[in-house]
């Protein structure tokens, strides 16, 4: 497959289309958001330890908040981890295949992953909508609205689906060096 001058940067390297770059930027933004959620969970945990150990008081919301923050960070971090090729991947077979076969294998794997992610998005949306419509709250004293936590499932899988679509485009139409490989040390610029 030949690439036009619009597909290359001034140095001659392949440059994905604007839509694929935008998806990558969105994935990065949500990866940063997930990192801040993990930081918040650590700070809340430190607060909980201080309140219990130093002040000798009981805690009400901290454990639950940490759990919800970690669920949110996991879901919202999905697209960023995909962008970095950080998910578990077996690369023995692809490394033995010629470039065209690698491209076909990567496309088939992406399509199967997209189908599974679409199902998770669908059922995650149903779970979120049901908790929102029925006003579900946690059974703790804090009574946290569960729709906020459940929203992270369809949002995270929706963003993951977008990143997978961008990766599918790269696998099917990108330059050979743009083929997805499970090597986090070769993260995108």
Automatic annotation (TrEMBL):
A Pfam family it matches: DctQ
Natural source organism: Seohaeicola nanhaiensis
Official protein name in the record: TRAP transporter small permease protein
Membrane topology: Multi-pass membrane protein
Residue ranges constituting the Tripartite ATP-independent periplasmic transporters DctQ component domain according to the UniProt record: 42-171
Function text: Part of the tripartite ATP-independent periplasmic (TRAP) transport system.
Record's subcellular location: Cell inner membrane
Ranges annotated as spanning the membrane: 20-44, 65-84, 104-123, 144-162
Subunit details: The complex comprises the extracytoplasmic solute receptor protein and the two transmembrane proteins.
Keyword annotations of the record: Cell inner membrane, Cell membrane, Membrane, Transmembrane, Transmembrane helix, Transport
Main location: membrane
């Amino acid at each position: 497959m030949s690439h036009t001058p619009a597909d290359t940067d001034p140095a001659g390297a392949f440059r994905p289309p604007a839509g694929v770059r935008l998806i990558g930027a969105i994935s990065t933004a949500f990866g940063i958001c997930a990192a801040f959620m993990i930081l918040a969970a650590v700070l809340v945990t430190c607060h909980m330890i201080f309140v219990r150990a130093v002040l000798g008081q009981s805690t009400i919301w901290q454990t639950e908040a940490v759990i919800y923050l970690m669920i949110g960070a996991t879901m919202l971090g999905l697209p960023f981890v995909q962008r970095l090729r950080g998910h578990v991947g077996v690369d023995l077979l692809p490394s033995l295949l010629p470039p065209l076969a690698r491209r076909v294998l990567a496309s088939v794997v992406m399509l199967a992953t997209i189908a599974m992610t679409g199902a998770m998005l669908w059922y995650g949306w149903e779970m979120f909508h049901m908790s929102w419509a029925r006003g579900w709250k946690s059974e703790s004293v804090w009574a946290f609205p569960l729709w906020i936590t459940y929203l992270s499932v369809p949002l995270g899988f929706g963003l993951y689906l977008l990143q997978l679509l961008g990766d599918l485009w790269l696998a099917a139409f990108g330059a050979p060096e743009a083929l997805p490989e499970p090597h986090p040390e070769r993260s995108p610029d």
